[in-house]
Amino acid sequence: MPTLTATPSARASQERSVSLAQTVERDPASFLMLTGDRPTGPLHLGHYFGSLENRVSLQDAGVGLLVLIADYQALTDRPAAGDLPEIVIGLVADYLAVGIDPDRAAIFAHSQVEALNQLMLPFLSLVSVAEIARNPTVKEEVAAAGSPNVSGLMFTYPVHQAADILSCRANLVPVGRDQLPHLELTRTIARRFNERYCPGEPYFPVPDALLSDAPLLLGTDGQKMSKSRGNSVPIRATADETARLIARAMTDAERVISYEPGRRPAVSNLVLLAALCRGCDPRQVADETGAGGAAALKAAVTEAVNERFAAIRARRAELAADPGYLRSVLAAGNERVRAIASQTLAEVRKLMHQRY
Predict the structure, then answer these.
(1) Could you report the per-residue pLDDT of 209-268, keeping only the tens digit for each?
(2) DSSP letter assigned to residue 253
(3) Helix or strand or coil: residue 39?
(4) What is the CATH number of domain 8-214+323-351?
(5) What is the Cβ-side half-sphere exposure of residue 103, based on CA atoms within 13 angstroms?
(6) Residue 55 has pLDDT above 60, yes or no
(7) Contact (CB, 8 A) for 166 and 188
(8) Contacts of 276 (CB under 8 A, 6+ apart)
(9) Is the dihedral angle over the CA atoms 87, 92, 95, 98 positive or is it negative?
């Protein structure tokens, strides 16, 4: 997929994000952030360093937080699985274990907020098929599916995401650069709705992207760490499981360890993971490992991961032992967001003259 950083729109997004971060720091209470994950497996270290850690920091700073478990979007490229309830409740445990506070944040699921999904219909009327088809992420997902028979749910994913964000009237969405086209379509839908149905007094806030500077962690196979690829180290993994997973991670034939992401991506990824866990510069990890080779590096990474996540894993084990509590947290989040989305849908119907 072509890089977005070279385009004028991407540069503008970067500039907006920098300014936005400063505003968030000054006035966090004026922001409502929506973020989330597909329930296709347990959350892993890539999720933690890529987004979860930042979600907790923003929550603790005073930003309103809504966390979506996108269970409908889990159907875009797979059938509904009998273990979906277990996976969903497992995500709730992951969220709480890393520090998301159910008293300050709402964790909810797509399928439990009917009004959210109803908003897809008017939103679909505001975009063309060609606009959706041009979305780079849609193109990537279609290619990854390996079949021309892509479901309508997958194709309309960007519009569904717009419904996620706008139904809650969220105005802050943390994204990676590869997700910018999704948010741009959400921004387009918000503007078009306002222009068509309420030009004098815009109803929907046009959400802003808070670009993430988090590094991309690779999985044990050298590809992007992913729940569905079986190449990740889950947050919930035990110390022994972590050791086994890291032991099979790709490296290279060079004995001396160095941090050179461009030339040695697999080795540098392990170095980076240890550095993130320890809170130090990757080059320090590389220098300390030196000529110890891949075995010494993997031992250092395993130790760093297990130390960094020991308390989180202990907390998660306690939470997992009480599934009733986890379900109550999800039910409360569903109820809170259901009320917000229902009010939004009622206002949308009023503005569209559909109150009969």
Answers:
(1) 888 777 789 999 988 888 777 889 999 999 999 999 999 999 999 999 999 999 999 999
(2) S
(3) coil
(4) 3.40.50.620
(5) 1
(6) yes
(7) no
(8) 49, 215
(9) negative
Angle, in degrees to the nearest 10, between helices 136-145 and 157-167: 130
Task: List, for residues 265-278, the tens digit of each pLDDT value.
Answer: 999 999 999 999 99
Rounded to whole angstroms, what are the CA distances from 36 to 43, 117, 164, 274, 292? 11, 16, 10, 26, 39
Count the Cβ atoms, other than its own, within 10 Å of residue 6: 8
Residue bearing tokens 């084990």: 317
How do 172-175 and 208-211 pair as beta strands? parallel
Are 342 and 170 in contact by the 8 Å Cβ rule? The answer is: no
The packing angle between helices 293-320 and 84-98, to 10°, is 100
Single-letter code of the amino acid located at 276: L
pTM: 0.91
Spatial separation of the C-alpha atoms in residues 355 and 345, rounded to whole Å = 11
Domain 239-320 part of CATH 1.10.240.10:
yes
pLDDT at 16: 78
Q: Please, how many CA atoms are within 13 Å of residue 165, restricted to the half-sphere of its CB? A: 30
Please state, in angstroms and rounded to a whole number, the distance separating the CA atoms of residues 137 and 150.
Answer: 14
Highest-confidence segment of 70-84, 124-138, 160-174: 160-174
* Tokens coding 30: 């004026």
Q: Where are the domains of the chain?
A: 8-214+323-351, 239-320
> pLDDT tens for residues 93-132?
999 999 999 999 999 999 999 999 999 999 999 999 999 9
CA distance 107 to 329: 7
Token pair listed for 306: 């297990």
Residue 79 is predicted with a pLDDT of 67
